[in-house]
Amino acid sequence: MVVLTARTLVSALRPPYPYGDELVEQIAFTLRLCWLPLLVSTFALNLGAPGIQAAGPLQAFGALDRLGGFFVLTAIRWIGPVVTAIVVGGVAGTAITADLGARKIREELDALQVLGVDPVKNLVVPRFIALVMVTALLDVFAIVFGLAAGITAELIYNQSLGGFFATLFLQASVTDVWGSVTMCAAFGAIIAVVCCFKGMTASGGAAGVGRAVNQAVVISIVGVFAFNYVFTAVLLATNPELQTIR
Predict the structure, then answer these.
(1) Does position 52 have pLDDT exceeding 90, yes or no?
(2) Read out DSSP for 154-173?
(3) Residue 49 is assigned to a structural domain of this protein
(4) 206 occurs within a structural domain
(5) Interatomic CA distance for residues 30 and 171, integer angstroms
(6) Which of 34, 49, 153, 175 has its CA 20 to 30 A from that of 202?
(7) Does this model's pTM top 0.70?
(8) Is residue 121 a contact partner of residue 46, using CB atoms and an 8 Å limit?
(9) 158 CB contacts (<8 Å, ≥6 apart)?
(10) Which long-range contacts (CB under 8 A, 24 or more apart) does 233-240 make?
(11) Cis link prior to 18 (omega < 30° from 0)?
């Protein structure tokens, strides 16, 4: 996987760039598959635990206006990026693994190499760039609908939205947003490399493709959570003001 990552980065930067049509197709394909599951997941998860359940104790203490600051942690730093990675990995990642795995089983990848076509350049690079771009874009999408769930929770408790937005903008910072989007872009890179690798190394017929898809999802999610831990630790260590409750 490390070697494939290096080859993918070099191929993406080195001309020629024959994968334009494939890149657009992969971006449209990923967006079409992921936008609705992501909308439902982020809205439901943010409305449930952080929204309804956290609003109850806050209301008991007369501090329901602090819910906006709470959603900086849940929607922007936590639920938005993680749910985006899980949806992209579980929906688009599995499709990529199955597609490349089927091509490997049918020996199409070997045929491309015989014809002098680099599979990494023409198949892996467009999927890698597409997942990096789309995952970062969908993170913004998830943050918007996560905050919409917080607004809905405020309305359910018949509260004015002034306090919600006041604490939201007081606690949030530009670092929170760019950190979330950057982390999601890295999630997309991890998912793309893992899924492409498992697809291109599948063996054993249709059953082998199924195993490759299963392994790709598991490894992708483990990699996402491991990177999330490291990235969050580094971000908080380099920006200690993010840990200050205002």
Answers:
(1) no
(2) HHHTT--HHHHHHHHHHH--
(3) yes
(4) yes
(5) 32
(6) 34
(7) yes
(8) no
(9) none
(10) 235/175, 235/179, 239/175, 239/179
(11) no
Q: What is the C-alpha separation between 156 and 138, in angstroms, rounded?
A: 27
DSSP classification of residue 243: G
| Cα(179)–Cα(202) distance, integer angstroms | 35
Looking at the domain assignment, is residue 239 inside a domain?
no
Number of domains forming the structure of the chain: 1
| Max intra-chain CA distance, the chain | 70
Rounded Cα gap, residues 64 and 20, in angstroms: 49
65: containing domain: 20-234
For tokens 């501090």, what's the residue? Answer: 63
Q: What is the pLDDT of residues 98-112, one digit of tens each?
A: 999 999 999 898 898
Q: For residue 3, is it within any domain?
A: no
Instruction: Name the token pair of 186.
Output: 């890295």
Q: What value, to the nearest 5°, has the Cα angle with vertex 144 and ends 47 and 86?
A: 75
State pLDDT tens for residues 195-245. Answer: 999 999 998 888 999 999 999 999 999 999 999 999 999 999 998 888 877
User: Counting every residue, how long is the chain?
Assistant: 246
Burial class (CB in 10 A: 0-12, 13-18, 19+), 196: buried
Q: Which two tokens stand for residue 53?
A: 């359940």
34-45 per-residue burial string, b: 16 or more CB within 10 A, e: under 16? beeebbebbbeb
